TrEMBL record:
PANTHER family the UniProt entry points to: GLUTAMATE--TRNA LIGASE, GLUTAMATE--TRNA LIGASE, MITOCHONDRIAL-RELATED
Lineage: Eukaryota, Metazoa, Chordata, Craniata, Vertebrata
Signal peptide: none
Enzyme Commission number: 6.1.1.17, 6.1.1.24
CDD domains, per the entry: GluRS_core
Record-given protein name: Nondiscriminating glutamyl-tRNA synthetase EARS2, mitochondrial
UniProt-listed Gene3D superfamilies: HUPs (3.40.50.620)
Domain Glutamyl/glutaminyl-tRNA synthetase class Ib catalytic, chain residue ranges per copy: 37-351
Catalytic activity of the protein: tRNA(Glx) + L-glutamate + ATP = L-glutamyl-tRNA(Glx) + AMP + diphosphate; tRNA(Glu) + L-glutamate + ATP = L-glutamyl-tRNA(Glu) + AMP + diphosphate; tRNA(Gln) + L-glutamate + ATP = L-glutamyl-tRNA(Gln) + AMP + diphosphate
Length: 451
């Protein structure tokens, strides 16, 4: 980076696009007619996949499949200090468990790889070099201590913290002098000019004048890793992403991203910001809620289709809300123009009923029912093991009969191995002392029953 900066030292020019400037039509995010639909789910492996992430992935998946496009998994692992061991593997495992596997991913590979941002650092360096050459970016030598003081001063004055763009005005000589002491500065993007208006496919026309309310953002950290703003723009461009479906918390940042697209001379994708998935009481889903992780639901015996059904039925994007939709039906019925700006309120107390509905659908299918028989046999063996005096209860015909008889009375297959249903698999084992508390004539009754 130091060599690059020394080579680029020259009098400052105002930021300019590296290609042709974007016209009004392009600013509205119209894409090329007939272009292939390519969408991405880009979580950070700083935690395991939870319901909020599943919903974002699902909407991308069903949009891609409805338009015969590609669904890409990209892992944003640039914050190396917050990575959780096993999280990257868990995210892809859970997408496959849910029945929405990516077409391209770190595990599957693909034509636009690598799919880990930590393996794409050369692309971010290349884009940064282009921005430095055009004057759209500049090195920042401010220490963490100075930035912290700026933040504290703003908060003390009840203002929104922002960088004061101090290093933007450094002369060529000052930059050279500071590079000699600090050869690896951060790189900031020069926010200047009017942000382009864009038509969000959910929220409509938007424009956020970020330059008037924010300081110039860091796009490349001193360790060579990009921030989200640069990485998502560079990756979406090089991966040919046609539509970005992401959470509404990124709506305000989109103007900043469009300025980056403009400075790099790239055509931006279409944007659709999805309203948040909230708890029933309106509070935000939190990773600290242990019961929102997909691993929890899978271990508890909930079906993938039940989860996909409940997280779509509580939101929008369909002509009507209904229970019991399968993934193919979600794909067929999904309409992005029907997604509203209102947050989706998730009531997990209804999940057992959703699961009951989808379990009965599986039972009604002979092939699926045979798979359920195998799963229940394993559950019985695990739950009762040595207590099985009669191994014939594991016969497929008997197990299938139990499933058919009890299908309307259970929400999960695991319910059939609960203590309430233990009589289906084991003989009652009651001590004589316990029987004596029931009746004084226990010996007489036993002789008549067993005699």
């Amino acid at each position: 980076m130091a060599v690059l900066l020394k080579r680029l030292l020259h009098p400052r020019r105002p930021p300019a696009a590296l290609g042709r400037p974007l016209g009004r039509r392009e600013a509205s995010l119209d894409t090329h007619a007939g272009a292939a639909v390519r969408v991405r789910f880009a979580p950070s492996p700083t935690g395991f996949l939870h319901l909020g992430g599943l919903r974002a992935a699902l909407y991308n998946y069903i949009f891609a499949k409805k338009h015969r496009g590609s669904f890409i998994l990209r892992l944003e692992d640039t914050d190396q200090t917050r990575l959780v061991p096993g999280a990257a593997e868990n995210i892809e495992d859970m997408l496959e468990w849910a029945g929405i596997p990516p077409d391209e991913s770190p595990r599957r590979g693909g034509p636009a790889g690598p799919y880990l941002q930590s393996q794409r650092l050369a692309l971010y360096a290349q884009a940064t070099e282009a921005l430095l050459k055009s004057g759209a970016a500049y090195p920042c030598f401010c220490s963490p201590q100075r930035l912290e003081l700026l933040k504290r001063e703003a908060l003390r004055n009840r203002q929104t913290p922002r960088y004061d763009n101090r290093c933007r005005s450094l002369s060529e000589a000052q930059v050279a002098q500071k590079l000699a002491k600090d050869p690896k500065p951060a790189i900031r993007f020069h926010l200047e000019g009017e942000a382009p208006a864009f038509q969000d496919l959910v929220y409509g026309w938007n424009r956020h004048e970020v330059a008037s309310v924010e300081g110039d953002p860091v796009i490349l950290k001193s360790d060579g890793f990009p921030t989200y703003h640069l990485a998502c723009v560079v990756d979406d461009h090089h991966m040919g992403i046609s539509h970005v479906l992401r959470g509404s918390e990124w709506l305000v940042s989109t103007s900043k991203h469009l300025l980056l697209y403009q400075a790099l001379g790239w055509q931006p994708p279409r944007f659709a910001h999805l309203p948040l998935l909230l708890n029933r009481d309106g509070s935000k889903l939190s990773k600290r809620q242990g019961d929102i992780y997909l691993e929890h639901f899978a271990a508890a015996g909930f079906l993938p289709d039940a989860l996909l059904d409940i997280i779509t039925s509580c939101g929008s994007g369909f002509a009507e809300n209904q229970m019991g939709r399968t993934l193919p039906e979600l794909i067929t019925q999904f309409d992005l123009t029907r997604v509203t700006c209102h947050s989706a309120l998730l009531d997990l107390e209804k999940l057992p009923e959703f699961n009951r509905l989808h379990l009965r659908r599986l039972v009604s299918d002979e092939t699926q029912r045979r798979q359920l028989v195998g799963k229940l046999q394993a559950l019985v063996e695990e739950a009762f093991g040595s207590q099985l005096q009669d191994r014939h209860v594991l016969d497929a015909a008997y197990v299938e009969r139990i499933i058919l008889l009890r299908q309307g009375h259970i929400c999960r297959l695991q319910d059939l191995v609960s203590p309430v249903h233990s009589y289906l698999w084991t003989r009652p084992a009651v001590g004589r002392a316990q029987l004596g508390t029931v009746s004084e004539k226990v010996d007489v009754i036993a002789k008549r029953v067993l005699g």
